[in-house]
């Protein structure tokens, strides 16, 4: 009996020790996981709407971070939020990021950038903001100057040379006189582009015909109101309009009206051509600026920059459908794409 009692006692001690060890290991693992999770740098990414150009900018941004050693789930945590084109939601997203005390906000497109800036100003939290796909950061009230922002904002602008687009229209559709533009009247960058188009139109012998919208459902009617008055439709870098490129091209081509885009995603979606920018490269450059900030560089020492280069992109299917002949001069230096045309 005494031997049995000793054996039972020894077993009990061993089991208790094993369980205690497991418990200690469990606590250590849990603590370690919390430490790792706590060490993640939180970055909020806000995007006004999903469409190919903005999606490319976001992809470029995250790729730049990864290339420089900042990888989602390893040492950073990216919280991506999409407003689905709803302006009040952009503000809600921005306020969430501020309340969460994220380390940095990446804002894609003017409405998201303005919402993020307003949220940080309202709470007086100096969270750095990097922007991309914003046409005019100064006029949008985000920075005081491009070379020295003077606020908690820096990043990249997608300002496109309207002169370059009009030169392309002249070469592709030489008899064009009336240029139509459908745009979102509540988007600051769209208003800026329309005003710029009107300023230079006479230099090319063009007349600008506009039709404003406030949501994507209004696009078909907006087009109907101007299609009989125009020779070409020009699509600015307007986020609401860009999300409806397939609808726009189909409606325009049914009336034999060419569509000229302001960036490559428009052309891949069915527009005839563009002399535009690469949004992936623009987003990548923004990501490099974010890396500088995370490394400790003061945001006012990082200038806002614009796309360094533009490229001509031609949709061969769209050109063929509309019987537009592409000269060798343009064809030899253009990227060719197909598809997106019904």
From TrEMBL:
Domain of life: Bacteria
InterPro entries per record: ABC_transpt-TYRBP-like, Peripla_BP_I
Keywords in alphabetical order: Signal
Gene3D superfamilies assigned to the protein according to its UniProt record, in alphabetical order: 3.40.50.2300
Signal peptide positions (record): 1-26
Keyword Signal attributed: yes
The name this protein goes by in its record: Substrate-binding domain-containing protein
């Amino acid at each position: 009996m005494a031997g049995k009692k000793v054996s039972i006692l020894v077993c009990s001690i061993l089991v208790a020790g094993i369980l205690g060890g497991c418990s200690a290991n469990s606590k250590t693992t849990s603590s370690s996981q919390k430490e790792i999770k706590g060490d993640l740098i939180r970055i909020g990414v806000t995007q006004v709407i999903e469409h190919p150009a903005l999606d490319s900018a976001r992809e470029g941004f995250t790729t730049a971070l990864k290339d420089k050693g900042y990888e989602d789930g390893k040492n950073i945590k990216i919280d991506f939020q999409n407003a689905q084109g709803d302006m009040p939601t952009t503000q809600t997203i921005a306020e969430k990021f501020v309340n969460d005390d994220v380390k940095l906000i990446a804002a894609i497109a003017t409405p998201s950038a303005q919402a993020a800036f307003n949220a940080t100003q309202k709470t007086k939290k100096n969270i750095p903001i990097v922007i991309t796909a914003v046409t005019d950061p100064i006029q949008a009230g985000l920075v005081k100057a491009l070379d020295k922002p003077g606020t908690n904002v820096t990043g990249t602008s997608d300002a496109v040379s309207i002169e370059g687009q009009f030169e392309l229209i002249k070469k592709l559709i030489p008899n064009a006189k009336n240029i139509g533009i459908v745009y979102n009247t509540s988007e600051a960058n769209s208003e800026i582009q329309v005003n710029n188009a009107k300023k230079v139109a006479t230099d090319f012998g063009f007349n600008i015909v506009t039709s404003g919208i406030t949501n994507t459902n209004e696009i078909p009617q907006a087009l109907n109101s101007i299609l009989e008055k125009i020779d070409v439709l020009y699509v600015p870098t307007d986020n609401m309009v860009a999300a409806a490129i397939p609808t726009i091209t189909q409606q325009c081509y049914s009336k034999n009206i060419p569509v000229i885009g302001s960036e490559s995603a428009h052309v891949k979606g069915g527009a005839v051509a563009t002399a535009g920018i690469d949004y992936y490269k623009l987003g990548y450059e923004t990501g490099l600026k974010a890396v500088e900030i995370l490394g400790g560089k003061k945001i006012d020492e990082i200038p806002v920059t614009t796309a360094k280069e533009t490229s001509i992109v031609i949709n061969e299917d769209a050109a063929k459908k509309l019987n537009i002949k592409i000269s060798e001069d343009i064809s030899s230096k253009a990227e060719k794409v197909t598809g997106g045309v019904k």
